[in-house]
Amino acid sequence: MDGMIVLAxxxxxxxxxxxxxxxEINRYDWCVSEFVRVSDVVVSQKVFFKEVPELLEGxxxxxxxxxxxxxxxxxxxxVAESAMVAVKLGxxxxxxxxxxxxxxxxxxxxGAAVLRNPALVGDVARAVRDMVPPEIPVTxxxxxxxDDAAEAPEIIRNLDRAAVSRITIHARTRNDVYxxxxxxxxxxxxxxxxxxxxxxxxxxxxxxxxxREALRLSGLQDIMVGRQAVSVPNxxxxxxxxxxxxxxxxxxxxxxxxxxxxxxxxAEHYRKARIKQFLGYxxxxxxxxxxxxxxxxxxxxxxxxxxVLEDGIRNPGRYSLxxxxxx
Length: 327
Ligand SMILES: Cc1cc2nc3c(=O)[nH]c(=O)nc-3n(C[C@H](O)[C@H](O)[C@H](O)COP(=O)(O)O)c2cc1C
Fold this sequence. Notes:
Blueprint: E1 5-7, H1 16-25, E2 30-37, H2 45-51, E3 67-72, H3 76-88, E4 94-98, H4 103-107, H5 118-131, E5 138-145, H6 152-161, E6 166-173, H7 189-192, E7 199-202, H8 208-218, E8 222-225, H9 227-231, H10 235-241, H11 248-263, H12 268-285, H13 290-298, H14 302-314
Parallel strand pairs: 1-2, 1-8, 2-3, 3-4, 4-5, 5-6, 6-7, 7-8
Bound molecules: flavin mononucleotide.
């Protein structure tokens, strides 16, 4: 595909270390950080550095991919001032989260809850757009609506008036959460006719076939990928260049590289959890790692877990890893 491919924000999964890993392997056009919560006070420099450590390194991952800072909040003035703090710290772009379905977040009028008030979506976006310098892109990430895609046209019109740079649409409603089979790429096509602002299609893109179908049905050119970008660590290369999806053994090697990145940043306890989380994602695309994954889950110590990974790489037959698996 020729369009842009953006690495999605994923709270608790696509953090600094995972962004670094995946942008070393791929050439994503940009990444979006996990959301930074904006409540009643302007977000401090300290919080931004903790949540988006790339801001200490020029606003890009180690391999140079820009990391846009995502903000989640519904008070236009406070979100705008927080955006300005992030920009002063070097954020190359600001993304606004209007899609998070978490009950806790929604209860305090954050994420997808704002979609129930389309005027407020526009107000937050306008305030941020007016506050930050014009050369810094301000984007919005939305769902089709709260419980009905009928809400989407008004949201799009308000974002159009706010003059955001791009709008990413996760083609589900909030009440669809992540339920399989609920994504509606075709619902995005009529929305694209309401605005000249470029839209990005997101949701359930897992490989070349689904990317083609999502682009055909939505009529768009650009995509954002999340969960499958972790499951297939070279997904951008697969989509852009037609490379083969990473094999099980190569994914294990990638897991060791991940552990190396984590080792300089986290205590052992967290590293074990992150390795298991990563392998859990890989298993969705590569079910043949199941036996090895079970072995990893049985191990207590980090060094034992690493030994299992190394054993899988050296002796793939022992864990039935040579089976082939497509998209
Ligand atoms: C564990 C998890 C965490 C997420 N965190 C965020 C987030 O911080 N901000 C956001 O806008 N979307 C978040 N999302 C939504 C994703 O960015 C994306 O819209 C969604 O997963 C659909 O795309 P996919 O099918 O390519 O994964 C999250 C999704 C998951 C599964």
